[in-house]
Fold these 2 entries.
Entry 1:
Amino acid sequence: MAEGKRIDFLVEELRNDDWAVREDAAELLAEIGDPRAVDPLIQTLDDEDWHVREAAALSLAVFAEPKSLAPLMELMNDEKASVRYAAAIGLSSIADPKSYDVLKKALEDESPVVKRVAEVGLEAIKRK
């Protein structure tokens, strides 16, 4: 299957009725690493299922694309700690000073892994 057709197929699968298929599609888009996946992954951050939101955020971390900054910052308010963790990884990979306040606030998160990734992100911003 040509690379473009594979990406198109996976982007379509991001809208599948089965959350597990959507989650797998988000993960596979990161593995392929084609930047055409960024916009569909950003749209997937609004998925109804937290597994899919988490996978999309982790996949966006691979790309470290600045246009995913605002959506990932918003995702730091998600009710699920694993989604906040994934969003913090994405923000850490981008390391944009605009996310400093969001990551600083995450130092008070109830989840120790979110706190730790926020620390890493703040350090990455300081090193830039």
Note: The chain has eight helices and no strands.
Entry 2:
Amino acid sequence: MAVVIRLKRTGRRLRPSYRISVTDSRAPRDGATLETLGIYDPITTKEELALTLDVERAKYWLSVGAIPSDTVNSIFRKQGVYADRAPKKVCKRPGRSKVTAKKAKRNAAKVAREELKKQRRDERLAAKKAATAPADAE
């Protein structure tokens, strides 16, 4: 059974509020839930009422493999659910800075294209200037 953490819509028409719930992935959006972790009200004007979340239970469900939806993931980040997790390691890729024969050939072709482009532009501007110069002399 795949467990997900997602929003379950409540509230009335044009005034939504959501329950942050843990549910089976096969269950419908507003179907049965295993546990409700909190409430999210995006419309409210009072900041303290906009979100209530049981952070400890959220950490528990994440530790047992529950997958949060994108919106719930964003809410968890803002509430500090991921605060005690170790940051991802940045994998260094040593071959990226090495200049290979193929890379050198590609860079040389790029420089040649830029030179031709600059030359064509200069010729075009010179022709345009030559065409407008006799008109100015008259």
Note: The CA atoms of residues 63 and 106 lie 47 Å apart.
